[in-house]
Design a protein that fits this description.
This protein is α/β, with parallel strands linked by helices. It has eight helices and eleven strands. It has a single domain (14-247), classed as Acetylglutamate kinase-like (Carbamate kinase). Residues 1-7 have low confidence and may be disordered.
Length: 248
């Protein structure tokens, strides 16, 4: 097994890192903070040094949210397509940061836009990963009404990733919202069915169901802690692991 930069064995061979659009905000209220992109890219590069193949699905909430636009009266499908285009902008920003960090990177889109990125083709994406390139997957699933959480789970299954690493602003899955319930308890590990039945807001129900049907584990962790993305990619146990109780 390949050694990580910290000398410990890498637990994963291929991972799917899910980043929200808000992850790129940094200290800004809107858009992309180049310093935050640079930090994320450096952490991904450090994790990749251990031989881990990394695919990334990025959201677009820092620029546009289709669901919020729909709530304000916009057609839901139109809003979702606009949100998909926002993820493309974020993907290009990540590509720039990753390549400046020394990682060869390909952006692959579920919506064809050949002048700026490749169309998503599963076999081509796998080949890029096998060649050591970071693959940034944008435009969600290419369909409205599906979140980027669902897109991340779909791509993880398609690409035979070993785990989904969901980077958030909280340090795992809680039994209640820790921001409004200071006494909320964090799970170190939880079953898919418990996440669904208790309606825990770790990620959307469609994504959890798809992960459960395909035995795809999910790690929810706090990306605001320095170095946590690198730790997650390298397989260190942080945050909350969501998987089947039968996998014990």
């Amino acid at each position: 097994m390949t050694a990580t930069p910290h000398g410990s064995p890498a637990r994963y061979g291929r991972v799917l890192l899910k980043l929200s659009g808000e992850a790129l905000l940094g200290s800004r209220q809107y858009g992309v903070d180049p310093l935050m992109v640079r930090d994320i890219a450096a952490q991904v590069a450090a994790g990749r040094e251990g031989g881990v193949q990394v695919a990334i699905v990025v959201g677009g909430g820092n620029i546009f949210r289709g669901l919020a636009a729909s709530a304000a009266g916009m057609d839901r499908a139109t809003g979702d397509y606009m949100g998909m285009l926002a993820t493309v902008m974020n993907g290009l920003a990540l590509q720039d940061g990753l390549e400046q960090a020394g990682c060869p990177t390909r952006v692959m889109s579920a919506i064809a836009m050949n002048e700026i990125c490749e169309p998503y083709i599963r076999r081509r994406a796998v080949r890029h990963l096998e060649k050591g390139r970071v693959v940034v997957l944008v435009a969600g699933t290419g369909n409205p009404y599906f979140t980027t959480d669902t897109a991340a789970t779909l791509r993880a299954v398609e690409l035979s990733a070993e785990v989904i690493l969901k980077a958030t602003r909280v340090d795992g899955v809680y039994d209640a919202d820790p921001e409004t319930h200071p006494d909320a308890t964090r799970f170190s590990e939880i079953d898919y069915t418990a996440v669904l039945s208790r309606r825990l807001q770790a990620l959307d129900a469609t994504a959890v169901s798809l992960a459960m049907d395909n035995g795809m584990p999910i790690v929810v962790f706090d990306m605001t802690q320095p170095g946590n993305i690198t730790r997650a990619v390298a397989g260190e146990r942080i945050g909350t692991l969501i998987r089947s109780g039968d996998d014990e």
